[in-house]
Amino acid sequence: MGTFIVRRLLVALGVALTISVVSFMLLHLSGDLATSIAGPEATAEQVAQIRVEYGLDRPIVSQYLDWLGGALQFDFGRSYYYQSTVIDLIVERMPITLTLGGLALGLAVCISIPLGVVAALKRDSWVDRLALLFAVVGQAMPSFWFGLTLIVVFAVTLKWLPAAGSGGLEHFILPAIALGYYATPAMMRLTRTGMLEVLESDYIRTARAKGLSTTSVIFKHALRNAIIPVVALAAVELGFMLGGSVVIESVFSLGGLGQLAWDAISRNDYPVVQAVVLIIALFYIVLTLLADVANAALDPRIRTR
Amino acid sequence: MPLLDVQDLRVDLPVEAGTLHAVRGIDLSVERGEMLCLVGESGCGKSMTSLALMGLLPRRAQLSAGRLDFAGESLTALSERRRGQLRGRRMAMIFQEPMTALNPAYTLGNQLCEAFLRHRLGNRRQARERAIELLERVGISAAAERLAQYPHQLSGGLRQRVMIAMALMCDPDLIIADEPTTALDVTIQAQILRLLRDLQQEMGTAVIFITHDLGVVARIADRVAVMYAGEVIETAPTQALYANPSHPYTRGLLSCIPAPGKTPPGSRLQAIPGVVPSLVGEVEGCAYRNRCPLVREGEVDAARCERTPELRRLTGDHQARCHYAEHRAATRVAQPEMSP
Question: What is the pLDDT of residues A44-100, one digit of tens each?
């Protein structure tokens, strides 16, 4: 298990470095930075001045190394737009995105796994059909539209919950439902398929032949094996929700990382864009790593391979 | 009173084309400490019979039985809860595929001790001690360390030994072994057979050994029941069956076994021509008549075979389901012919 984690960590480090290069290069490939920062009315002298001021006249490799050196110390420079350092902006927004993502994933897990198990156990029953309908609707419905519907029903009509803003926990309930529902169908169906497959397997027959209780057969023997791919999917879904919650964040006016990135892109605020891209990529890497470790913990065959 | 007394056991499965009569009224009895071999080709209903006895039939299957008594209790009358208390405790099962019959996610120790703990035969320490004792008994070295291993770390032969130890954990009265050696190498097969036979004699456990291989039967069985198309067509003590096979199908099976030293090199391997009749819908008459050499060679009155034969007592413990079980030509085991 130890060597397994070390090996995975090394791979993760390589991926992180590659992403840092790509996220740094992408912006430099998208045109002359100095010109776009200076704006359309700037004179040639102003552009040249900005180029020197921002260090854009130096070789690209040394620019990258400078940026990377800073990034390793959480120094991503200053925002071109806000009068504040990039890291302060991120630290301020991060809790919102993490809370939203965490709640949404928690909700998705709590709904999809029990529903998937019941659908598999009661295959072709009305519960199964209902679960399928629930999944198809969740997959087909755009999340912004579902978010707006939630606002209309629960905030505007019933006035149970706030429609927008990011104050207390009550502000996160509707966006977490909207985002969580988006992640539910895939996990539910994967749980259902996994359970159906595992329930047919020989070792389930062995477990039943031992006279074990139905609970033990389903939860100890079946779910444990069926859940392995679901764990990996959940990690990817969380990464997606952390990085891609920009739509939900703007529907509910939650000022999270997604919205910060969106604003930064439209304002050519490059240091912010680079930092957010890198941080979201790091989220993905850490989550994939955690998924691998969790998989190995659940499946002894992976550990010793 | 026999340990297991089965009369007119039937298992029906709904399929698209109608109802599949997988088991069509079989009678079986197993004495305490006896080894009964259930022999037949695939699809003859032998696995369905074993699942029916264990109460592990698929949910869509329908079971009926004139009598299904285990240790004096009627299994059909038991609640699912009481049935679960017998299963694994007083009747255990060993399956065909050792590679897939163990849960990959749990250690051998966990899976070995599970039934023992479930049936409240003792605490964890006692379960562990019994597991080690049985692993050693089935010939696994370093038993204590093995408990922490996972199934994928073991070879097929070792896994089947673990399965046998697992079946013995609760000291059951009856073990049903469903082709436990089919998936193993020939050399390992012989070891496992010998082990099963030794354990059965040592512990006095009754065993129903299911196989398609009559060669295996001769080595281990006290009694044999040959199944064909969902019925028992002949049953006898092993010696009597080999000395005097009375159903043409049994003779067919016996002639299919090449005997080292007897079957001349280069001779054709014997096979029974034709196929098993479909068990979807009712089967009228003798199920074997379309493949029977007696019918094909006109030695018997084929019209009589249109009527369904009963399982008849021939001598003592020897029963056969054939109108012509006493036919003289019938006692001749077909010798493998020389190739030209």
Answer: 888 888 888 777 778 888 888 888 888 888 888 888 788 888 888 889 888 888 988
- For chain B, the structural domain boundaries read 1-90+205-340
What size, in residues, is chain A? 305
- Strands of chain B (E only): list them: 4-15, 18-30, 35-39, 62-64, 67-70, 73-74, 91-94, 174-178, 206-211, 223-228, 231-237, 312-315, 318-320
Q: In this predicted complex, what is the ipTM? A: 0.84
**Nearest CA distance, B185 vs chain A (angstrom):** 20
Contact B100 A208 (CB under 8 A): no
Say what the pLDDT of residue B334 is: 47
Domain B1-90+205-340 architecture: 3-Layer(aba) Sandwich (3.40)
User: Measured between CB atoms, which of A202, A205, A211 is closest to B119?
Assistant: A211
- Residue B143: strand pairing partners: none
Least confident of A120-124, A271-275, B161-165, B236-240: A271-275
Q: CB of A215 within 8 Å of any CB in chain B?
A: no
A62 and A154 co-located in one domain: no
Q: Which of B62, B106, B146, B195 is nearest to A206 (CA)?
A: B106
Residues 94-133 of A with CB under 8 A from B: none
Exposure of B315 by Cβ count < 10 A (0-12 exposed, 13-18 middle, 19+ buried)?
exposed
Please answer whether residues B94 and B193 qualify as being in contact, where contact means their C-beta atoms are separated by less than 8 angstroms: no
Q: A183-225 pLDDT, tens per residue?
A: 899 999 999 999 999 999 999 999 999 989 888 999 999 999 9
Tokens 């969902």 locate to B230
Domain hosting residue A133, numbered range: 90-270
Contacts of A300 in chain B (CB under 8 A): 104-105, 107, 150, 152
